[in-house]
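Tokens for chain A. Residues wanted.
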């Protein structure tokens, strides 16, 4: 790490020297950006192959001063418009003024993405399908946190897995959460501990957009990218702006006296220096959600939550071809489920409570070479300190503390040629996790009437270190209508478990990837791909969550001989997009997927011991498993005022041999699910938005105390659910600002689980369907640039 920091300091010093040399320049470039005669504000204007750039102002005008004379390619980019490039020749002391007319890109086909091949490329030219969840989707669906917005992407489904604390996960293409790699600004620092509740920890106001790649991504991103990759890209400071918003929701409206409030406040602000040589953005978020009891048994179905987030992103340009970026954010979150919320955890009948202190920091240095080659060196880390309590029946022995640290470093070089591109790099990811149960003092009265104090020491549950070193490369070549991508990654990992004193788990994994893009017509594309992936035998998110009731407790552990799990994934898609003469736009994507899991991880559960503890032992299945299906995605924009989007997934997930309950099918995995959104701008100031999600039937295990043999459980099939929502917004234009007033309802018809288990002996894992009942909300936003 010290060597890396020294290298960064050296690079910054060199960059400052370059900056000093760049100060003797004199040309100026100015202009105006329009679309059909209308000025376009806040458009990104940059000079290709350099860090020189700015944004247009409210009138669509821009100006860049102190440019070294020469030939340059000017790039113009803005969400909703096709990228534009123009070559200019700047002479000494020249003030060149250009006018640029952008074309609309209603379907977002030419938006720039980075996740598909670790390089900036237009979506239409990427050899993998890249789906984007942007701020428009977050706003339309009234998504306060990331977890709420992920349902509105094909192949994704967010689920709640615990009736007590709200442990949630994302399923992609039918595979549970640990099969998807979560990235923050393309870095794999979202650890297993962060994954337990992490997607609900992250507020949407810190996110610029989310890029989703379905299908194996281990060739570029390493372990756990079997189902796909979800890349969270944080907001960049691009112009002087500010925004503050407040939302208040009422959960369970119409369900008696059990309505719970969910209040949140957020703000964003950014400042950019002269000539955009530096900039900083800050953001903050506070949320307070009360517990919700759906069945009047005094135990919560939705946990209480208190979240405070502060963060910043900044950059400084070290000359015309070098830039350093810094990221930092800190999240404090407390959540608790169970009952008796006004007493300490150990005085409640059931309490599952966690308190997270999560800190993330990152630094990236970028340097351009030749015309467009880009060299980057990066380091990022995430530290989590979590206090927890998973206990029942006034137990004092169930307090715990978990510390987790993840650190990722690496270098990458993107070389661009006339018809091809090469991306290569190395990275190292280190993580350390220590999980312990906290000691306590117990008082009792002896037979002689004396007060006896018994002390119990701290107990280490897990003490794991993991290090993965990877080398990766991908070569893309364009051949007329074909584009071929060949990628590969070699990882060597080591997992140490000091507490269990087991042999170290080591492995060398080669993950190839082949993608082929064929332009059947300019608006009709076909893609096929193969990719290999793997999961190392490490501690996963579900291992760090304990299901608790008055009758039993469920823990998850790895078998001593657990081996890595590997996968072979195949995908094929047809993507048709058309703009008609009446300016309507139509897009249809049909995507088939097939994933074969080798040595898949499965659970073997034990009978309850004397203390009611059930152990789920993770082992390798003797045979494999197969996940296959089709994703359908429809985009239709009949006119600029109406946008319709829908996605639907049909799939099956089965083991080759029967597992729990003598069943081959995956549990908690519906064979069909989908979403839709409809945005109608009724006037310049009024907007009406309809949303919906569909969840098909699924198999759900039940271990309730009312069964004849609770320890054996039974397998039940859930109902299907259609969750519909409606939102109305009114925007009031002020002199230099805007005020947006919004209100609406989620889950209008209260399509929600009706057979929750109840009482102290309930099965908290028996939960399925939409994450919230009928919810009414109101919101206000004020700022000079409303997202």
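Reply:
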């Amino acid at each position: 790490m010290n060597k890396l920091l020294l290298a960064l300091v050296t690079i910054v010093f060199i960059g400052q020297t370059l900056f000093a040399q760049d100060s003797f320049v004199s040309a100026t470039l100015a202009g105006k950006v329009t679309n059909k005669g209308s000025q376009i504000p806040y458009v990104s204007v940059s000079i290709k192959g350099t860090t020189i750039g700015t944004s247009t102002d409210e009138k669509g005008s821009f100006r860049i001063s102190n440019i070294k004379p020469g030939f340059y390619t000017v790039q113009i980019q803005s969400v909703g418009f096709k990228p534009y490039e123009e070559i200019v020749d700047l002479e000494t002391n020249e003030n060149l003024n250009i006018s640029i007319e952008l074309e609309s890109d209603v379907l977002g086909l030419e938006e720039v993405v980075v996740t598909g091949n670790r390089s900036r490329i237009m979506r239409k030219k990427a050899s993998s399908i890249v789906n984007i969840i942007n701020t428009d989707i977050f706003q339309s669906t009234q998504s306060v946190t990331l977890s709420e917005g992920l349902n509105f992407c094909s192949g994704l489904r967010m689920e709640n897995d615990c009736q007590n604390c709200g442990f949630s996960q994302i399923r992609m293409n039918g595979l549970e959460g640990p099969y998807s790699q979560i990235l923050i600004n393309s870095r794999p620092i979202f650890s297993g501990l962060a994954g337990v509740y992490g997607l609900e920890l992250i507020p949407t106001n810190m996110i610029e957009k989310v890029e989703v790649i379905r299908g194996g991504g281990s060739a570029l991103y390493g372990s756990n990218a079997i189902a796909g990759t979800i890349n969270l890209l944080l907001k960049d400071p691009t112009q002087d702006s500010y925004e503050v918003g407040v939302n208040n929701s009422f959960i369970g409206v119409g369900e008696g006296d059990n309505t719970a409030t969910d209040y949140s406040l957020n703000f964003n602000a950014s400042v950019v220096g002269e000539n955009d040589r530096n900039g900083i953005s800050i953001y903050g978020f506070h949320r307070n959600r009360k517990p919700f009891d759906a069945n009047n048994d005094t135990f919560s179905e939705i946990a209480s939550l208190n979240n405070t987030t502060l963060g910043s992103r900044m950059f400084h340009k070290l000359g015309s071809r070098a830039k350093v970026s810094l990221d930092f954010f800190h999240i404090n979150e407390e959540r608790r489920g169970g009952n008796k919320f006004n007493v300490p955890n150990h005085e409640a009948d059931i309490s599952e409570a966690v308190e997270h202190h999560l800190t993330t920091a990152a630094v990236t240095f970028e340097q351009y070479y030749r015309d467009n080659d880009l060299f980057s060196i990066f380091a990022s880390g995430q530290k989590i300190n979590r206090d927890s309590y998973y206990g029942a029946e006034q137990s004092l022995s169930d307090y715990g503390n978990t510390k987790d640290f993840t650190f990722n470093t690496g270098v990458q070089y993107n070389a661009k040629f006339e018809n091809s591109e090469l991306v290569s790099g190395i990275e190292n990811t280190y993580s350390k996790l220590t999980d312990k149960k906290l000691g306590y003092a117990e008082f009792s009265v002896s037979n002689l009437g004396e007060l006896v104090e018994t002390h119990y020491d701290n107990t280490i549950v897990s003490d794991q270190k993991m290090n993965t070193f990877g080398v990766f490369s991908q070569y893309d070549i364009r051949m007329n209508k074909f584009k071929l991508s060949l990628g590969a990654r070699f990882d060597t990992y080591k997992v140490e478990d000091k507490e269990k004193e087991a042999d170290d788990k080591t492995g060398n994994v080669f993950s190839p990837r082949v993608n082929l893009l064929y332009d059947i017509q300019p608006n009709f594309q076909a893609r096929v791909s193969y990719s290999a992936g793997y999961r190392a035998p490490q501690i996963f998110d579900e291992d760090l969550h304990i299901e608790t009731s008055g009758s039993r407790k469920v823990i998850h552990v790895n078998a001593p001989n657990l081996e890595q799990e590997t996968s072979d994934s195949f995908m094929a898609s047809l993507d048709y997009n058309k703009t008609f003469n009446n300016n309507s736009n139509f897009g249809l994507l049909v995507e088939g997927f097939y994933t074969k899991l080798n040595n898949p991880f499965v659970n073997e559960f034990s009978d309850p011991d004397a203390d009611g503890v059930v152990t789920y032992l993770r082992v390798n299945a003797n045979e494999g498993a197969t996940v296959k299906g089709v994703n359908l995605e429809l985009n239709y924009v009949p006119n600029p005022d109406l946008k319709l989007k829908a996605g639907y997934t049909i799939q099956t997930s089965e083991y080759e041999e029967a597992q729990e309950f003598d069943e081959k099918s995956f549990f908690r995995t519906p064979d069909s699910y989908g979403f839709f959104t409809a945005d109608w701008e009724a006037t310049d100031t009024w907007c009406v938005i309809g949303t919906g999600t569909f969840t098909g039937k699924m198999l759900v295990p039940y271990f309730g105390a009312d069964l004849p043999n609770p320890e054996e459980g039974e397998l039940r099939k859930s109902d299907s659910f259609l969750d519909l929502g409606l939102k109305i917004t009114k925007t009031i234009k002020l002199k230099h600002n805007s005020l947006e007033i919004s209100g609406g309802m989620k889950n209008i018809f209260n399509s929600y689980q009706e057979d929750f288990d109840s009482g102290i002996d309930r099965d908290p894992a028996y939960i399925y369907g939409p994450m919230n009942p009928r919810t009414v909300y109101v919101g206000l936003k004020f700022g000079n640039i409303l997202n």
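The chain has two domains: 2-101, 112-783. The CA atoms of residues 326 and 363 lie 5 Å apart.
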